[in-house]
Amino acid sequence: MPPSRWTEWYGRALEHYLALRQEYPRVSLVGFSTGCLLALHLAFAHPIHKLVLLAPFFAIRHRWYYLFRLEQYLNSLGWLLDDVPRFRLPIRDGNVRALAEKVAYFRSFNLTAVRSALELIEQVKGEVASIQVPTLILQPRQDTVVDPDQAVWLYRELGSAEKSLHWLEHSDHVLTLDCERETVFAQVCAFLTQDPAPAALG
């Protein structure tokens, strides 16, 4: 994750959304992790047909041995560092992880960018109750990056009457590459191509 701020990320997303609206009458959004925040923020301000939120980032996964939540470290000691290394991709499928790590990917997290993502979280938390777009949330229970419990919070607080939350039992954070990726693809495709379904939690 290079040095950047959420307003830059959102500006690019909005630019592409507006270009798509010039060509298509309906636009659906698929967000992954921090991309879910951008999708929700966009859906708060603009007409969106459907939302797919994959492992939405509303809090960093907390472990008892951290003593404090990582967000607290980021906003205190984190100001002393520019970047922290990324040691491995959060993918449980070993073969896929090895292949993915051979490809160029961000090998560090810029802490200014991470703090900016935390600012976006606070912004979006105040918007989710007003978002009434049909939404599918997919969340791995074994996610080592984001707090899985926040998917339940998002499902509960989201203003849409047409929403569903589905759990993945064996995947880590990068669910589109992990061992249940075919399930992810099937559920996303089914949701985007079918008429909106009643609210469900499963």
Short key terms for the protein model shown above:
two-stranded antiparallel sheet, 202 residues, Rossmann fold, 7 helices
Summarize the structure in words.
The chain has 202 residues and is an alpha/beta fold. The protein starts with 5 loop residues before the first helix and ends with a strand. It contains 7 helices and 7 strands; from the N terminus they run H-E-H-E-H-E-H-E-H-E-H-E-H-E. The strands form 2 sheets. The protein has a 5-stranded parallel β-sheet with strand order 1-2-5-6-7, sandwiched between helices. Strands 3-4 form a two-stranded antiparallel sheet. The chain has one domain (6-201): Rossmann fold (3-Layer(aba) Sandwich), CATH 3.40.50. The protein has helices at residues 6-23, 34-45, 70-74, 94-102, 111-125, 149-157, 181-193, and strands at residues 29-32, 51-54, 83-85, 108-110, 135-140, 163-168, 200-201. Helix content is 40%, strand content 14%.
Instruction: Name the CATH architecture.
Output: 3-Layer(aba) Sandwich
Overall pLDDT level: 87
Largest sheet: 5 strands, parallel
What is the first-to-last residue Cα distance? 33 Å
Number of strands: 7
- Under CATH, the topology can be stated as Rossmann fold
Radius of gyration: 17 Å
Task: State the shape.
Answer: globular
| Helicity, as a percent range | 40-55%
Work out the oligomeric state of the chains in this entry.
single chain
Element pattern in H and E: HEHEHEHEHEHEHE
Regarding CATH, which class? Answer: Alpha Beta
The CATH superfamily name is: Alpha/Beta hydrolase fold, catalytic domain
Any idea how many domains?
1
Strand percentage, roughly? 5-15%
Low-confidence stretches: none
